[in-house]
Design goal:
mainly alpha; 0% strand
Length: 81
């Protein structure tokens, strides 16, 4: 009986981890949208600076995506008790 209850608890924890990552992916998604919106706005206002601001846009995009990847990897590194 305790093995069945323990198995059910493990399944619930796994499902909650999946839901947690899904919710955690919302933040980096919003961040990427904000980065590219700022790039488009700055390029529309001053087109001659597009080359310089493109570098910063890719840097901001990379940092936002790194947070998403970190949120994906951490549950695999830190075991549940």
């Amino acid at each position: 009986m305790s093995v069945v209850a323990n198995l059910a608890a493990v399944q619930i924890i796994g499902n909650l981890g999946t839901i947690g990552y899904g919710l955690a992916a919302i933040g980096p998604g919003i961040g990427v949208g904000i980065v590219w919106a700022a790039y488009i706005s700055s390029t529309a206002r001053q087109p001659e600076s597009a080359g310089l601001t493109r570098t910063y846009a890719f840097l901001g995009f990379a940092v936002s995506e790194a947070l998403a990847l970190l949120g994906f990897v951490v549950p695999f590194i830190l075991p549940t008790s």
